[in-house]
Amino acid sequence: MNGQPLTEQAPGARALRLGTRRSALAMAQSGMVAREVTRLTGRPVELVEITTYGDTSREALAQIGGTGVFVSALREALLAGRIDFAVHSLKDLPTAAPEGLVLAAVPEREDVRDALVAAEGLTLDELVEKLAGAGRHARIGTGSPRRMAQLNAWAAARGDRLETVAIRGNVDTRIGYVASGELDAVVLATAGLNRLGRSAEISQHLDPELMIPAPGQGALAIECTAANTELAAALAALDHAPTRVAVAAERALLAALEAGCSAPVAALAGWGPENELRLDGVVGNPDGSALLKMSANGPIVLDETAEQQARALGRALADRLLAGGAATLMGERAR
């Protein structure tokens, strides 16, 4: 998201109102987008802070429904005309398309990997081995059943054990658990730490071979009303087609599994040579005792049918996962 201004700023032009959550990460992400929108449109952008239910509730995401809890208030503000557009972490978006709104842009994706922030800067291997030598299991915090499932499965495959601890809170709160010694490590999204300028605190990037990320992780979603066609067209200049198509495959898998964003489901689509899209999907239970992993791939041409092709790939992989017993493992399929 960079380059030369596309329009001259009109004197006295009304500022565009960008709705954002109040967290430091949300504000950082929205600020990045705001600067690009000003460059594209020549209009100033005002950040409008909105508190969502997910920000105020202290319950675990699985307990409050997970899907949409960070998004609904922003969408209501859009439809009511209180803001002109909104920026979301794409992994927080429900898979069902909202009436009256359009996904105007999916900018180029940040680093998709999860990150370990551990005491003494230890890697996961080092941490587990050091604490095993001290006669105890590593305590690792995360609010994600997806991460819990894959961490516990990784440990079991090595003949080790660790304790995954459910946590909530912003980045400062989560890393604070490590600094205070309450936890030995926490797992966070690399993209968020990068956007906050805190990548130096990462002890280890957890590659997808160890931990596949959440569907849409590392990507942003820019929404506006379908009626505001002029703004939608301007925002479309921020869209990155390879990212949009990849996350379409991941989200189609999630939708076909009828799973929410708090379910123990992981998906990652990546581009190979000759427009080959590979989609990896994982479903497990949080204790890691069962983990089902499958892959699918196919050539996709980046034309007007690309998202449709990607969704078909995602649905096909979901069908295979369901046939392999994914619904039983998730335990959260919609009734």
3D structure, described in words:
This protein is of the alpha/beta class. The chain folds into three domains: about 1-105 and about 220-240, 3-Layer(aba) Sandwich (D-Maltodextrin-Binding Protein, domain 2); about 115-205, D-Maltodextrin-Binding Protein, domain 2 (3-Layer(aba) Sandwich), CATH 3.40.190; about 240-325, 2-Layer Sandwich (Double Stranded RNA Binding Domain). About 35% of the residues lie in helices and about 20% in strands. Helix 6 (about 145-155) links the parallel strand 6 (about 140) and strand 7 (about 160-165). The chain is globular. It starts with 15 loop residues before the first strand and ends in a 5-residue tail after the last helix. It is an enzyme of class 2 (transferase). Keywords: Porphyrin biosynthesis, Transferase. Tetrapolymerization of the monopyrrole PBG into the hydroxymethylbilane pre-uroporphyrinogen in several discrete steps.
Supply the key terms:
335 residues, alpha/beta, D-Maltodextrin-Binding Protein, domain 2, Double Stranded RNA Binding Domain, 3 domains, 5-stranded mixed beta sheet, 13 strands, 35% helix, 22% strand, disordered N terminus
Overall mean confidence score, pLDDT: 90
State the name of the first-level CATH class of the largest domain.
Alpha Beta
Q: Helix fraction?
A: 25-40%
CATH superfamily of the largest domain: Periplasmic binding protein-like II
> What's the number of helices?
12
Could you spell the SSE succession in H and E letters? EHEHHHEEEHEHEHEHEEHHEEEHH
CATH architecture assignment name of the largest domain: 3-Layer(aba) Sandwich
Q: Please state the overall shape, judged from the principal axes of the Cα atoms.
A: globular
Main sheet: strands, sense, barrel: 5 strands, mixed
Number of domains: 3
Query: What is the end-to-end distance?
Result: 41 Å
CATH topology of the largest domain: D-Maltodextrin-Binding Protein, domain 2
- As residue ranges, the low-confidence spans are 3-9
- What's the total number of strands? 13
